[in-house]
Design brief:
The chain has 209 residues and is α/β, with parallel strands linked by helices. An eight-stranded mixed sheet has the order 5-2-1-6-7-11-10-12, with helices on both faces. The protein is globular. The two termini are 14 Å apart.
């Protein structure tokens, strides 16, 4: 299911953005877009941390403890963003892929009107869920070959927008992903305002269909 960019319009209510957290998640992988959406204001963007096992506390890669107050409920989200957690053997990401609970939950999430995004190696969780097969996407450079091997059509661009699937490269590109989604839903003026507040200039390009 692919939603044309022309069909994107600001919702009448706040845009509901759910960021999916799990133990070992990398802080910068979720901090970037969280900060960007916060600039838009709560009247336009309602953000929640969610956990696939229900409300609970997670411990990040650096040992921070974050409370996920919202239960996993993809039908009550407009955007779901999945951050990464390292890569390779021994990583929290590999543990989650092997556990299988998170990929299975993501596999059943897509529906009309929902945008699913990923930051850095979070794309590999989408891949494990079967959501990137045959789709234009990207991830951190160290995982791109595996993403191709699993059926993803890896293309260039710091952010890759394939309609209802929006992925980005490593770590700090989550800021670019957040700004791009602001532009998609609220227009270029809102995106430029976020850049000004953050004193940040988007790097590279957004690869769109």
């Amino acid at each position: 299911m692919t939603t044309p960019l022309a069909d994107t319009a600001p919702p009448a209510r706040p845009l509901r953005v759910h960021t999916l957290l799990y133990d070992g998640v990398e802080e910068q992988d979720f901090a970037g877009h969280i900060e960007v959406f916060g600039i838009a204001g709560e009247e336009r963007v309602a953000q929640s941390f969610v956990h696939v096992d229900g409300p609970r506390q997670v411990t990040t890669a650096a040992g921070m403890r974050i409370l996920c107050r919202t239960a996993w409920s993809p039908r009550s989200a407009d955007v779901i963003i999945v951050p990464g957690a390292g890569y390779g053997e021994g990583s929290a990401l590999r543990r989650e892929i092997r556990r299988g609970v998170l990929p299975r939950a993501l596999a059943t999430a897509p529906r009309q009107g929902l945008v699913i995004g990923a930051v850095c190696t979070g794309t590999m969780l989408l891949s494990a869920a079967g959501l990137t097969a045959g789709r234009r996407c990207t991830t951190h450079h160290i995982a791109q070959e595996d993403l191709r091997r699993e059926g993803g059509q890896v293309v260039g661009g710091r952010v890759v927008d394939d309609g209802d699937l929006v992925t980005c490269g490593g770590v700090t590109s989550g800021i670019d992903l957040g700004i791009w989604l602001l532009e998609r839903f609220f227009g270029p003026d809102t995106a430029l305002f976020a850049e000004e507040v953050l004193e940040y200039e988007r790097r590279g390009s957004v690869n769109t269909r």
